[in-house]
Fold:
Amino acid sequence: MVLDKRKSMYYIYALFSLKDRKLYIGFTHNVDARVKEHNSGKVPSTQTRRPLKLIYYEMHLSKKDALRRERYFKTTKGRTTIKQMLRNSMPNA
Structure:
């Protein structure tokens, strides 16, 4: 079975703000395009936090699974988990 990645993949991503040294967690179908939107100032929630660096993403086949994972990473426990996972990617965070 061949999958059409453009229609069947969902991504959770983590951006690291080089300005405020904090994480932003998001969901998208196209990681590259979404990161460009963030860094060009088109996303209100990160507009004042630029520049942003993509430090993590994971792919899911199910939108429901991806959204559940995004919600988890936005909880206190999830933020602790992702910060621990990415501690070497977030200098001085």
Notes: The chain has one domain: 7-85. The CA atoms of residues 17 and 57 lie 15 Å apart.
